[in-house]
């Protein structure tokens, strides 16, 4: 571990990797401190609890998500519906790359989906923070669909519910790919994302 990185940042980087590749419950504060090469007192100086740390990790991943491949996928220069193709490709290549880097060759899946499955029924604060992220993702999908409708690329539809269905589908595909440890499943099933349609109620 390079000590040129600040103590708080070291803690966050260790936690991001371990929470994502394993689970929130499985990773303890002592393990994080040992990997970050710090004393527990330093940990508690920055984070009163493990919950406070995972909230920070969620925020960090959200920022990475917003400024990284999602920003590229939803580039306004791309035709709206092509952005979903880019998104699927980006998810596939990111998961495949992460699997290659993992010492055991495991695909990590989606951190937000992983945490939602693990803790949403046990911790209301964490559930609310994850819900906020999923709403942001849904809204990005919805805005893209609305643009596609306004351009005449697709017929009118219920953009809010279709966006939520598309997000649920993508998260589900990533979950199945993680379960099978096979990112190729994302590549095979992902293109169906664009075929999802929920009609407007009359």
Keywords:
202 residues; Arc Repressor Mutant, subunit A; Tetracycline Repressor, domain 2; 69% helix
Characterization of the model:
- The protein has 202 residues and is mostly helical.
- 69% of the residues lie in helices and 0% in strands.
- It is built from 10 helices and no strands.
- The protein has helices spanning 7-21, 29-36, 40-46, 50-67, 69-73, 80-101, 111-119, 124-151, 159-180, 184-189.
- It is elongated, with a radius of gyration of 19 Å.
Decide which structural class fits the backbone: mainly alpha
State the separation between the terminal residues, measured CA to CA: 60 Å
- Average predicted local confidence, pLDDT: 93
CATH class of the largest domain: Mainly Alpha
- The helical percent reads 55-70%
Shape: elongated
Task: Indicate how many domains the architecture comprises.
Answer: 2
Q: How would you sum up the major sheet? A: none
């Amino acid at each position: 571990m390079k000590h040129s990185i600040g103590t708080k940042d070291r803690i966050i980087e260790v936690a991001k990797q371990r929470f994502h590749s394993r689970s929130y419950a499985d990773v303890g504060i002592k393990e994080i401190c040992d990997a970050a090469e710090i004393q527990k007192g330093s940990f508690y100086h920055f984070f009163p609890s493990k919950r406070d740390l995972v909230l920070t990790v969620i925020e960090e991943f959200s920022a990475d998500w917003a400024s990284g491949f999602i920003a590229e996928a939803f580039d306004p220069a791309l035709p709206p519906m092509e952005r979903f193709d880019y998104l699927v490709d980006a998810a596939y290549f990111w998961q495949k790359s992460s699997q290659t880097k993992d010492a055991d060759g495991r695909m990590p899946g989606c951190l937000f989906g992983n945490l939602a499955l693990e803790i949403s029924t046990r911790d209301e604060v964490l559930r609310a923070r994850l819900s906020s992220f999923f709403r942001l993702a849904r809204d990005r999908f919805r805005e893209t669909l609305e643009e596609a409708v306004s351009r005449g690329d697709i017929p009118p539809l219920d953009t809010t519910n279709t966006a939520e269905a598309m997000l649920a589908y993508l998260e589900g595909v990533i979950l199945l790919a993680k379960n099978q440890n096979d990112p190729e499943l994302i590549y095979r099933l992902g293109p169906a994302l664009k075929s999802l349609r929920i009609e407007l109620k009359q």
